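Lab notebook: predicted structure, single chain.

Context: the supervisor wants predicted structures on file for every construct in the current expression panel, including those that have not yet been purified. This is the next one on the list. No modifications to the sequence; it matches the entry in the shared construct table.
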Amino acid sequence: MSNFTNFTSVMLPTKENPLYTLTEDLIYERYQKWSWLYIVVPIGTETNFASLPWICTIFWKKDDPRWIKASILHDYLWSKAKTIKDYQDANDIFYEAMIVEWTPRSIATLFYLAVSLSKYLYFLLK
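Prediction complete. Output recorded below exactly as produced.
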């Protein structure tokens, strides 16, 4: 089963830098078809955990510990995506990572649908 390695800290936003900054690597080990894929989000990566459309943040905090690692991973994968398949893979991994971190399936599904919809809007407006 996929999982995150130990990850414990991000640098909090400041007035000069409104983003969270990773102070250590975040490594996601993804089991995929008889092999492991290691996704490394490097130290120094900046995130705002705002991959979620704002409507979701009315009901759930975007920096909730249940999905903070999945949000960091998703932001990183979106920043590296070049094709629509890359964006879809990022969304699929986001959903899987939320489940790995014990997010309730109903919330994980809602967030997955929200980021998937935003992907299509992103490409329409691009």
